C-alpha cells in the first residue's frame, strides 16, 4: 500500500465509510488527475490501477464518496456528470458551451458561501452557493467560425 492509498483510506474512514480498495483507488486517481472527469474516465483509470472494476462499482463508489463530501459531483445541463477531488471549498465552475471543458473558479465574492440572497425567509440559512459560468474556453473562442454565440443561451 502506498502512502497515497493509506492517506485515501484514512480519509474514507474519517468520513464514516468502510475503506475498500475500490474506494481508495477512485479517490487516488481523482487526486492524481486534477480536473473534472466523467464516470467513464474515472472507471478507466481505476481499472488500470486495479486490473478490474465494474462500471456499476465505479458509479457506486463515486456516489458514496460524493455523499460524504470526499469528491464533488458537478451536474450541468447538457453535460454528463463530472467528478473532482476538490470538494468542500464552495468554488464555482466555468463550462465551455462548445467543447464542454470545465474549469474551477474561486468564490465570486468573499468566503463561502460567496453569495447570499438579499431576502431569505426567516429561519433559512445559506451555507453554499453554486454558480456556473457559461461561455467559450480560450481554444474554442479562438477557433475560426466560433465565438459568435458565446453569450447566447442554449
TrEMBL record:
By its UniProt entry, which Pfam families does this protein fall under?
Answer: FUR
What is written in the cofactor note of this entry? Binds 1 zinc ion per subunit.
GO process annotations (BP): negative regulation of DNA-templated transcription; regulation of secondary metabolite biosynthetic process
Q: Which SUPFAM superfamilies match?
A: Winged helix' DNA-binding domain
Instruction: State a GO cellular component annotated for this protein.
Output: cytoplasm
| Main location, first listed in the record | cytoplasm
Q: Which cofactor does it need?
A: Zn(2+)
Q: Which UniProt keywords apply?
A: Cytoplasm, DNA-binding, Iron, Metal-binding, Repressor, Transcription, Transcription regulation, Zinc
Q: Which InterPro entries match?
A: FUR, Fur_C, WH-like_DNA-bd_sf, WH_DNA-bd_sf
Source organism, top-level taxon: Bacteria
Q: What is this protein called?
A: Transcriptional repressor
Amino acid at each position: 500500500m502506498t502512502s497515497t492509498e493509506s492517506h485515501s483510506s484514512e480519509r474514507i474512514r474519517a468520513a464514516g465509510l468502510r475503506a475498500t480498495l475500490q474506494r481508495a483507488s477512485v479517490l487516488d486517481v481523482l487526486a492524481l488527475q486534477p480536473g473534472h472527469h466523467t464516470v467513464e474516465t474515472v472507471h478507466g483509470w481505476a481499472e488500470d490501477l486495479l486490473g478490474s472494476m465494474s462500471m456499476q462499482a465505479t458509479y457506486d463508489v463515486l456516489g458514496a464518496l460524493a455523499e460524504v463530501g470526499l469528491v464533488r459531483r458537478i451536474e450541468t445541463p447538457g453535460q454528463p456528470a463530472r467528478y473532482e477531488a476538490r470538494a468542500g471549498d464552495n468554488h464555482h465552475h466555468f463550462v465551455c458551451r462548445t467543447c464542454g471543458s470545465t474549469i474551477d473558479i474561486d468564490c465570486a465574492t468573499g468566503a463561502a458561501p460567496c453569495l447570499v440572497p438579499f431576502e431569505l425567509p426567516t429561519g433559512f440559512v445559506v451555507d453554499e452557493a453554486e454558480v456556473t459560468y457559461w461561455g467559450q474556453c480560450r481554444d474554442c473562442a479562438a477557433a475560426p467560425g466560433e465565438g459568435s454565440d458565446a453569450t447566447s443561451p442554449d
